[in-house]
Design goal:
The complex is a heterodimer of chains A (115) and B (115). Chain A is mainly beta and 115 residues long. Chain A has strands at 3-5, 10-14, 19-21, 24-26, 32-39, 46-52, 59-61, 64-69, 74-79, 88-96, 104-105, 109-114. In chain B, the strands form two sheets. In chain B, strands 2, 4, 5, 6, 9, 10 and 11 form a seven-stranded mixed sheet that branches. In chain B, strands 1-3-8-7 form a four-stranded antiparallel sheet, with no helix packed on it. The chains are: A mainly beta (115), B mainly beta (115).
Chain lengths: 115, 115
Amino acid sequence: AQKVTQAQTEISVVEKEDVTLDCVYETRDTTYYLFWYKQPPSGELVFLIRRNSFDEQNEISGRYSWNFQKSTSSFNFTITASQVVDSAVYFCALSEESGANNLFFGTGTRLTVIP
Amino acid sequence: EPEVTQTPSHQVTQMGQEVILRCVPISNHLYFYWYRQILGQKVEFLVSFYNNEISEKSEIFDDQFSVERPDGSNFTLKIRSTKLEDSAMYFCASSVYGRDKNIQYFGAGTRLSVL
């Protein structure tokens, strides 16, 4: 069965600090996809990134970077030089190739960036 | 930038009443989804819809739920006889056909309050 674990329920950092959000997943599929979504206080879910199980290259997009390690079943998300606008709930999610595209979400990590 | 729109943003109803939540997916998308998020909890998959039929549904999506694409633009979720535990944020999402079919773009959600 599939599962996504985000052990950090809440994190607070001071502006300009770096912060890493952890995500650990479980799946029996050999082909799967991992995602991060951001849910700001306004409530919508904003797509940030998708990685497939065959691509372990780390990715950087501006202040955001993602570290995918199959050996530890982790897909961690780092925000460098955090800003107040980064304050949100961040969800990690999994989609299996054998499924019908539906996403399995973790419980989310609430990030608060203090000015 | 194209977006998924959901109406209403907040729906208040009495227990036992029927509600219809409406969504307009992104125009060239072919896969449609409903998810729900009970306050403070993770986002849970309800149903996916493709080619005018349900592709997959979760255990939550029981006989009181139904989905419909009544015309070329709207995608609706009907709850026949609402219960208190149906109170949640309901998200609609859509995705394209093809290799990016599992990148789902979400609307801002409809908050359903059942009294």
